[in-house]
Amino acid sequence: MKKTIIIAIILLEGISASSQKFITKTGHIRFFSEASIEKIEAHNRQVNAAFDATTGDFVFKVLMKSFEFEKALMQEHFNENYVASDKFPTAKFLGKITNIKEVNIEKDGIYPVTVEGKLTIHGVTNTLNEKGTLEVKKDKIEGKASFTILLADYKIDIPGAVVKNISKTIEITVDLLLEKASK
Amino acid sequence: MKIWIKVLLVLIALSIIGAAIVYKFVYNKQHPDYENIEASFTLSAQDLYQEFKKNPYPSAKLYNGKIIAITGILSKIETADSLVTAVFVFKQGDFGDEGLRCTMLKKYNKEAIKLQPDGEVRIKGYCTGYNDTDVVLEKCSLIINNEN
Fold it and tell me: Which of A48, A109, A131, A132 lies at 20 to 30 Å from B33 by C-alpha?
């Protein structure tokens, strides 16, 4: 845990040193899964994210208790039984846009990007390599990506009684409207 | 009507009522009424932020998932989509302003937008934690008069 924090601080320090830093504190992450009986959908609109358009360094951090479900019972089960949000209150991604040189932040447009890095959920870290887009619009950049994770990869167990109700995978959609940082 | 048919009908009726109760009060139960839950803690916005900053893990154990009432000098009101957030800034860091962010319940949005920076406000909300830059309260309501 300490090592991850140190890496995050180093990365953020690196990002802060750049004049091309973009940030948001109101990013949106949605997760969705659909099994035969139960459809599960949750939204978190309090996502912290920072992006350095010069180096491609990219980080976001999520408070697990900020995920909102339509059903209160699902929200309870999510926090207590699945992600253990008291024990693991945050999820985070530390990584890089590997083809950042193909993105011209001076020119409005939608640029396909590849994001590579480490995603930590439920205290378990896995490497991610996913496609997404960066949309440059004036002084803002909107980053979007959608990918699927396997719950087992993050040691999230589904109780036997509801194993048929809950999908073994979750589709995660990230939408971050980043604004140029003032400092 | 034969007795066993009567018993069967009663059992079926009881089963339907039981299923309806489980559906309404367990499976489909309502989210907490955050506005009317009594605060577990009452402290200043700055003290809450400093506690999380100095001792993030013990503070998370103490405050996460609890209803907290805070008092502080408002720095600004932010709006993003349908969210209205009262912000108390205590530091400048890598993510810009750092401090306490209180996202209002929808019914308080109009009232919160009218709040003036530099004025003292009292807010109650559900603490979702500290993300290394800000302490976050959600489902917040404005506390007016002397209610807790």
Answer: A48
